[in-house]
Amino acid sequence: MTTQWADYEEVTGGLTDPVDPSRDHITGAANAPVTLVEYGDYQCPFCVQAHPMVAALLQADRPPIRYVFRHFPLTTVHPRAEPAAEAAEAANAQGRFWPMHDLLFSNSPALEDEDLLASARALGLDERRFARDLVERVHAPRVRADFLTGVRSGVNGTPTFFINGVRHNGAFEYPVLRAAIEATARTEAGRR
Which domains does the chain have, with CATH numbers? Predict the structure, then answer.
């Protein structure tokens, strides 16, 4: 995917495209007071490091969070990130986005075509359909749409997190993210 920055609208520091349950990949508590949106890249070593932090945040009892993952493949430095994102979408077409998402992060950087097919096999997906989706790049428009929402929101690297629509500029280590999420939850509770 080649990016031509002149094609995009004004870049801001907040989440410009709100979470949409009809198109976004969402997990966690549906009515959570805090929504954590991540723009990520399956080949990015920092996203790989952040993945268990997010999993721990989702498992924590308080505050409950809703987590959204959006694709932001940095293809100039991670040439296998876009095929991996398309593989996640091909798995999504078979109802298995989150298992593939987790598998891609746990297998990174092994994201060659044969690795993606092995992941599909491990998840019990229809391999023929999965392979066809990848070859025909059926899900490339979805990946690009996520990427463009990131560009509009000022994302320029991965992982980039937004907490209730506000860009998190701190570290992505568990204690830092948890403190930011707890502070947001307290603010939200004060507004009710």
Answer: 16-181 (3.40.30.10)
